[in-house]
Amino acid sequence: MDSFYPLLHFLSSSLSEGELSSMKFLCRPHIGKRKLESVQSGMDLFSILLEQQQITRNDLSFLEDLLKNIKREDLVLRLKQFEEEREVSAPDDQPDVHEKRLQKAAIEVICENVGREWKMLMRKLGISEAKMDGIMTANPYNLREQVFQSLREWQKGRDAKVTDLVKALRGCNMNLVADKVEEKLLLLNTRTG
């Protein structure tokens, strides 16, 4: 059985009414008032956050911040434990050496060529707004680093494939960048093939 939902259930059952109330307050900038009023449990709150992709199986940073804000370090520890266990069990899902080389090349091209529209691309790749905001806060004046860190975040996904990058670029009408990525990949494949 997948351990993600049991983890959320455990966190929910560990919250007091006051703590849930504090978490709801902290979520006000992200969740509408009417939705928040309907929240009766941690699971209700987590369901909304999952729906809005504030938390995902691969990105629990928003949830971690909430738990830190309500001073529940024990639950933060439990979250980190889950993330470590997930990383240990992930090697089977990781891309092979060739795919990693292609990803690295594609990321270099994208970092050099994608400008201020980078967030549109990241949304297409499934990176949450919260994660992008965190990356922007950590690298406020470095657009290239924001793009790079976001793509690194995308790579953590189980099925990160270069073909998905190209598809996402084309989906955002960044065809010139997609062409450059494909040229670079073709060059790499002819060298290694």
Describe the structure.
With 193 residues, the chain is mostly helical. It has twelve helices and no strands. The protein has helices at 4-13, 17-26, 33-38, 42-51, 61-69, 73-89, 97-113, 118-124, 129-138, 143-155, 162-171, 175-192. The longest helix has 18 residues, at 175-192. It starts with a helix and ends with a helix.
Summed up:
By secondary structure, this protein is mainly alpha-helical. 71% of the residues lie in helices and 0% in strands.
Task: Output the keywords.
193 residues; mainly alpha; Death Domain, Fas; 2 domains
Note the topology.
Blueprint: H1 4-13, H2 17-26, H3 33-38, H4 42-51, H5 61-69, H6 73-89, H7 97-113, H8 118-124, H9 129-138, H10 143-155, H11 162-171, H12 175-192
Helix pairs in contact: 7-10, 7-12, 9-10, 11-12
Q: Indicate the mean pLDDT.
A: 86
Which regions have little confidence, pLDDT < 50, spanning 5+ residues? none
Question: What is the CATH domain class of the largest domain?
Answer: Mainly Alpha
Portion of residues in helices? over 70%
User: What is the total domain count?
Assistant: 2
Count the helices. How many? Answer: 12
Structural class: mainly alpha
The CATH superfamily name of the largest domain is: Death Domain, Fas
Report the strand count.
0
As a whole number of angstroms, the C-alpha radius of gyration is 19 Å
Termini gap: 40 Å
Q: What characterizes the major β-sheet?
A: none
Shape: elongated
| Subunit organisation of the chains | single chain
Examine the coordinates and then state which fold CATH places here, giving the name of the CATH topology of the largest domain.
Answer: Death Domain, Fas
